[in-house]
Amino acid sequence: MITELGSAFVLGLAGAGHCVGMCGGIAAALQLGGNSGKGITLAYHGGRIASYTALGAALGFAASSIDIAAWTISLRYLAGALLIAMGLYIADWWRGLQWLERGGAIVWRPVQRWSSVLLPPRHWYQAAGLGLCWGLMPCGLIYSSLAWAATAQDARLSALMMLFFGLGTLPAMLATSFGAGAVQGLLRRRGLKLLLGVLLMASGFWTIYMAVAHANHTNHGGSGHQQQQQVDDARHNHH
C-alpha cells in the first residue's frame, strides 16, 4: 500500500505544470476576494480532492466485482503501463494521454454548463460544489490516474490513492491561488519533472515485473495441481 500511495502523491506533485495550466486560472480567480477568498479557495480544493477520492472509490469497487485471476493480472499489467505512460507524459517525452482529454470532453460539457451557475463562488459551499465538478474535467492526468487507481481492485485503496494524488497537486495549486511564485517555479523546473517522470516509469516497470512474476507463479502452481490430479486419477483407475 505504501508504494501505491507514494506513487500517487509523486504523480500529483509531478503534474504541477499540467495542473496549473488546466486549473490555475480558476484557482487564482478564487483568491481575488482577499482574505475572504482564502476560505473559498480552500473549499474549492477540498471539493476537488473529494471528487478524486469518490471517483477512485467507485472505480475500485467496480473493478473488484470481477474475481478472476486473469482479470487481476491484466489489471496489474495495465497499472504498470499507465505509470510508464504518465511518467513519459510528465517528462514531456510522449503526449499520448491527450486522447483521454478529447474523449473526456464529451462528459465534461454538460457538467461545465451546470457548474457555470456556481461562478463566481461567493460562499464556501459554492466553491466546494465547483471543486466537486472540476474533478470530471477532461484532464489526461486525472483520467489515467483514476484508471490506475482502479487497478487496485479495492474501493478503500483506490480512494486513498486518489486522495494522495489530490494532496500531491496541492502545492502547485495553492501556490497559484496565493501567489507563491517561488513554489510554482520550483515545481515547474525541468530537472524536477524529469526526475519525477523517471521515478514513475521505474515504478511502472517494477509493477509489470511483479505482474509477470505473479503470472508465472500462478501458471506453475496450476500446472502442479493438474499433474497431481493426473496422478490421483491414474491411481484411482489402477485400483
Automatic annotation (TrEMBL):
It comes from the Bacteria. The chain crosses the membrane at residues 49-70, 77-94, 124-148, 160-182, 194-212. The keyword Cell membrane does not apply. Coiled coil: none annotated. Residues 8-206 form the Urease accessory protein UreH-like transmembrane domain. Keywords: Membrane, Transmembrane, Transmembrane helix. Residues 219-239 are annotated as: Disordered. This is Sulfite exporter TauE/SafE family protein.
